Amino acid sequence: TTTDYTCTVRNAYGCELQKTIRVRVLTALELQLSPDTLTCRGSSLFLRAGGGAKYAWSPRTGLDDSSSATPKCTPTQRTTYTVMTWSGDFRTATCRDTATMTVDVYDITPVQATGDTTVCPQSDIELRVANPDSTMQYEWRTAAGNVLGTGSLLRTTAQSSMSVIVQASTIQGCTSHDSVSIIVDSRLPVQAAAVDRKSTRL
Fold it and tell me: Which of 16-20, 164-168, 184-188 has the lowest mean pLDDT?
């Protein structure tokens, strides 16, 4: 809304002087910011702000565009970001608003699978996670996405050559992958023994 205020000054002789000033009440900015979140080291996510016309994120570390409403964030450590919004020219902007949010960064130890890699047809195979972590979840699957089992140990039967993928997951949702190529060799080893036959004449 806009309101005009008039100030009147009168001296002892009845002389008057008036001055009018117009006051315009702007709509207050209500900065909306995505809540605190987390990501895995090496991964990216988008931060989101709304409710303003222009934005400035601080610090700029890990952000692709600190003036965007939705900057891409790739942090390397836990970081608290402050965003300011305003309308019009920043130097003369009357209404401003700020808010903060924190991005936590989690690590995951790379998973490593070990086990038999060359077997005979219909052979039982056993694959293991090297140095398993009890706080992680493990899932084994084929390259086509078929789940073979869960846990740090996999026992299965090899029908044909295939690639087995193990995925390790933390409770924060960070994942690591490793794969093992299983080769099924249908050739059977053949051993030939020479027989020395001698005939004896009486």
Answer: 184-188
Taking the model in full, what pTM does it have?
0.63
Peptide bond just before 59 cis, omega within 30 deg: yes
pLDDT tens digits for 133-156?
999 999 999 999 999 999 999 998
The whole-angstrom separation of Cα 85 and Cα 56 is: 7
Q: What is the mean pLDDT of residues 118-140?
A: 90
* Tokens read off for 60: 């700029």
CA nearest to 85, candidates 94, 101, 97, 69: 97
Distance CA 136, CA 98 (A): 38
CA gap 92, 82 in Å, rounded: 21
Alpha carbon distance 102, 45 (integer Å): 13
Cα gap 156→133, rounded to integer Å: 22
The C-alpha atoms of residue 129 and residue 139 are separated, in whole angstroms, by: 10
Instruction: Please state, in angstroms and rounded to a whole number, the distance separating the CA atoms of residues 98 and 88.
Output: 16
154 phi and psi angles, rounded to 5 deg: -125, 125
Predicted local distance difference test score (pLDDT) of residue 185: 83
CB 43 within 8 A of CB 63: no
